[in-house]
Sequence to fold (632 residues):
Amino acid sequence: MLYFIEQFLNGIQLGMLLFLLAAGLTLIFGIMDLMNLAHGSLYMIGAYFGATFAAWTGSFVLGALLALIATLAVGMALEVIAIRRLYGRDHLDHVLGTFGLLLFFDELVRLVWGPAGLTLSLPSEMLNAVQILPGLYYPVYRLVIIGVTLAVALALYLLVMRTRLGMLIRAGASNREMVGALGVNIKLLYTLVFGLGAALAGFAGLMQAPILTVQIGMGENILILAFVVIVIGGVGSIRGAFVAALFVGLVDTVGRAFLPDLLHDYLSANAAATLAPALSSMMIYLLMALVLVVRPEGLFPAAGK
Amino acid sequence: MSSLRAMSLARIRRGDWLTPRVAVNAVLLAVLALVPFYASLTSDPFLVTLFTRVLILALAALSLNLIMGFGGMVSLGHAAYLGIGGYAVGILAKEGIGSGFVQWPVAVAASALYALAVGALSLRTRGFYFIMITLAFAQMIYYVASGLDRYGGDDGLTIYRRSRFGAFVDLDNKTQFYYLCFALLLAGIYLVWRIVNSRFGLVIRGARSNERRMRAIGFPTFRYKLVCFVIAGAMCGLAGALLANHTNFISPAMMHWTRSGDLIVMAVLGGMHAMFGPLIGAMTFLLLEEALSHVTDYPDLILGPLLLLVAIYLHGGIGGLIGARRG
Fold:
């Protein structure tokens, strides 16, 4: 039972990180109708900035703040220089163009930081494990991730639902032309949304950095997970992304933890050992295929789409 | 007889068949046919190896273009067929079945079966969702391959002997292997040309521009698209079998989603609505990559922005540049 709770918390933590990535991806998709394969690169850049700035300043929190601002700036610059020119085009052009950006960023990181990965070390007080239940110790930092990402999710919710900017974002998601016709500076709005998405992705990257090594290509696999999340949640829906992210995080983590034992009960040890790793990696994709077959628009389709 | 073929026949009768596109394609084929000669003259065997790779990936991009360019089905999971074809060859070789007469049909059949299953499920969706579901299935195959411990798991598997075809062709002979790939690519281009200009192809192209209307006039478009999807999968499976023989190695990395991205890039780069587009695209992409890696240690720093520029400014890809003025 304790093991299950531990894995459950791990699942929540992965889910919250996926939400940070998926929220930006789904906003950009919902509002600008842009399929962005370079979103994972912003996650990677966030992690590299985090590791570098934390080493410079000697403080993890200060480094993280600087990295967040830097990723936001990179995202907005990217939108103004390149992404803006892809709006209103075929999805295929998006795939080609943003795939080019993905190659570019991987190579740029290799040029700037070298081919070897970086590590980001945590302040000592975050390294410890605390007792959260009798007999269950859990790393502080993972709890911090859950707490901070929940706070970010809440802030994002307030931003989108309670502010004027959020109102424009929601309006843009349901009817772009009308928002433009009403005199809203749609170009600026797009730049801000893209920057926000980039900052969220970079934030996910730098939060994950102390747990994983910071390396080239780290964004490529998690990008696919984020896409799975927005497909399951319904494109353009932040609420859907939140639910689906937790769902995917839990299914993936809990599946990996328990599927091998479960298979052992029904199959020979040999077959289970072969099948379990593949099957547990496949589960979320099976889940997505299932959702798409049953509900092609995702679980929470955004209104007006 | 379809309109395109009638048009080309009319052109031949009128005598103005030598359009810039035809000229470019003819020069391209002549160059490709002469690569082994040039390589032996300059004693540069690497050239043959490089161009063999170009031909194989051109075949894969051609199969993708059949569904994507003509059928409007954008698949971001096409590298899965390369993997399935490759693993069919690798697994059979490891189990002691070295004959290409067994390996290659198995590679094609396995890819076709996989395409049938994936197509049956994913062709219910469209647009972005189709892209994502094809990607999801390819990811599953990727993880299946990673889990095959007997066949190398994540590390992959070396193929010690290339497929054997008795006295017909010797794949260890670089020149023979090159010309086999060349012949298969030409056969593939001819097949795609016949398909696209047949009644079947007209239904597929009609479904791309307006599926609802095609259904309304009585065509079961789902079945047509599914058959097209399976043909493309089988063709790419063959390319996978060739690729495994070319590199003597298979690994899950050959079906990583970025490899599917590469195939899309090749197909789009060359111009999707041209028969020779995928070949032009594969050649441009691979030769550019090769040339840039000689000039700089960071080739993607140039290649990436180039792709972005193509996406922004060149709607029809490079193929669209050739003879574009003729409308």
Notes: Strands of chain B lie at 157-158, 249-250.
